Amino acid sequence: MINTTRPRRSVLYMPGANTRALEKAKSLAADSLILDLEDAVAPDAKAAARKNIHDALESGFGYREAVVRINGLNTQWGMDDLKIFAHSKADAILLPKVESVAQIQELAKLLEHMNPSHKLTIWAMIETPMAILKPPEICSAHPLLETLVLGTSDLVKDLHARHTPARVESFTALSLAVLAARAHQLCVLDGVHLSLDDETGLIASCIQGRDMGFDGKTLIHPNQIQAANEHFGPSPTEIDEAKQRIAAYESAIRSGAGIAVLNGKLIEELHIQDAKRILTLADAIESFHR
Question: What pLDDT, on the 0 to 100 scale, is given for residue 71?
Answer without folding.
Answer: 97
